[in-house]
Amino acid sequence: MRNAPIGVLDSGMGGLGVLHALRRAMPHERFLYFGDNANAPYGPRPPEEIQALTLRTAHMLMERGVKALVIACNTANSAAGELLKERLPIPVVGVEPDLEDAHACAGGKRVVVFATQATLALPLYQGLRKRLCPDAISIPAPELVMMVERGVLSGAEPEVFFREKLRPWPLEEIGAFVMGCTHFIFLHGALSAVAPGVPIFDGVTPVIASLREALAQADALAASGEGSAELLTSSDDPEVYARMRVLLAAEP
Ligand code: DGL
Known about the structure:
This protein is of the alpha/beta class and about 250 residues long. It is about 45% helix and about 15% strand. Bound molecules: D-glutamic acid. This is Glutamate racemase.
């Protein structure tokens, strides 16, 4: 059990930013990553479809013997997280928009959340917003998902997007940003270029803490040995696989 891999899933490239952080935090673990790039983006799909795609990937990873599952996708976690926790016999943790840390850090200023349409509409985010930060500004950003899928991580394209979307609010009124989509982990630099000094929360630190705790409870943490990361994708485009390797190596 301790030597079994940990499954990590996303609709595509976004979860690679989570995987990068997981590998650094848990260097003895073996990870098995699945990007459903052939079906990305998930954000514009109805929740039932996102749920079905996520269940299919989770079962495929279970068949490969994973000891835990990280839903490294806010959208998939919003649509299918609870279901997977109920149905799978292994620990399941999922990334969610980190409104808690963002709100605590914003010092009474506004919190701005970038996420997919599905994440912003589903009850997980709606509940967090109502409970923690009712005046959070929610901005759907499907364009950014496709930028990252294409490998565009910096420069004019994301910066113009952020500048346009933030135009209605003076920057000094913004106290924190939430990247509520794992694809956007790769765009911290572009956002900081537009809004220097404003802290960004992407939900990765809390999900790593949850995974560590769940594995410790199940006595399933790898204690020694060299970790690894195997990448799988539903896409048959060799360029997608090449881009995945580049993104995994990139420092998000
Ligand atoms: N990476 C995903 C997320 O965290 C979803 C992007 C998409 O497929 O629309 O929400």
